[in-house]
Design a protein that fits this description.
Rossmann fold, nine-stranded mixed β-sheet, six-stranded parallel β-sheet, EC 2.4.1.21
Length: 461
Amino acid sequence: MPHSKLHVLHVSTEVFPFSRTGGLADVAGALPYALQKHGHESSTLSPWYETLNTPTAPEVIKTFHVYGIGDVVLGRVELDGVNHYFLNFPLVHTPKLYGYENDPERFARFCLAAMHALLHLPHVDVLHAHDWGAGLLPAMIQYAAPHPRLHGISTAFTIHNLQHQGRWSPQDVLSWTHLPSYLVHPDGIEFFGDVNYIKSGIRYADVVTTVSPTYAQEITTPTYGEGLEGILRQSQYQGKLRGILNGLDTERWDPRVDPDIIQFGDYAGKQAATKALREEFNFDDKPILAAVTRLATQKGLDLILPFLKEVLEDWNVLILGGGDANLEGIFTVLDEHVPSFKFRTGMQEALSHRIYAGADAFLMPSRFEPCGLSQMISMRYGTLPIVRDTGGLHDTVPPHIGFRFRDATPQALRNVLKEARGVYEDRQAWAHRVQEGMKQDFSWEKAAAEYIALYRTLLED
């Protein structure tokens, strides 16, 4: 079927702009549009949270009953030609997306409702499940489908972050999902006595992808495999594991038209954005080193603490983020007492745009990074990334533009910051890097073409 139109349904626990905590939502929100630009139909299915970001409530198109859940409301919002579907029942109609003790039950039940919703949606060729919250779906399509016509649906599963796996007791998960007990074994969905949601996706999806080629290689090793390197190596040997680099929503992230910044399209224009950020935070004339990030061990910002005093002699430092209470406390004290260190907490969308536009350098010392979008945004906005050489950072930050370091140690980070500061002194060399970074193509075009080719192989098998 070389020229037939596909319908791909993306199932995710968050989809931008309706619900978001991080990069998962950005991908689930952008990829369907990229697929539609290639002439295919692509839609999303996600929970109908209490805090859904939509001007009006979704249009209710169906209410159906699911044993173990009760009535489930199926809603729809059409946005720029893409249908976004939502499932509403008490367990998922919550103020927050995550952070509840019963999250494993909430998303197991969501998977069950999603499978039943397929009977009320237009025909789906490929169900593309994203991360642990949708990880049980491929197994459920194979072993718990409520209607024979669901057996013909091909499944893809994307790992966005292997560290978050979803684990719970088999007895409960089987009761929530109607999966058969014979799947609970080490070659099935069992993992050290629990059901592992992400392992289920890896084991039973027709194809498994992750969000960069380098991360796809890294997770087959004990260092990055989070205990699942064995099944991932097996998937790799079977030709089932692929790494497809995420794209960037280049319409949302475009410094030429971004309404939240002083707009610019070249190095000269960027200087105005930098001047505005410097004035906003009352920084002196040192270059601005920024980070927009979750404060978590993965992100590696703690690596800067042992030599932060030295860093502040060379840079103004600006951090927007939240998470780890210890880091938040340290950064809050620094913000109050050190003029060249500023810390803002929470998800502040407009401020994040001003930071990307106005900073000179962008810091991402991640211990691991499946893909990362911030480094792509920063280059597009003329801000040079300083990154650990891992995962998607390796695949997206060329050494002639940004600065990379290999070891996740304070000394290695110290050395690369010194290197970047030295290059900054040569303003012509710095400007050349900025201009090259702004030329990089991070659009979804290439990734969408790779996904379409992958979907077609599933339908041809």
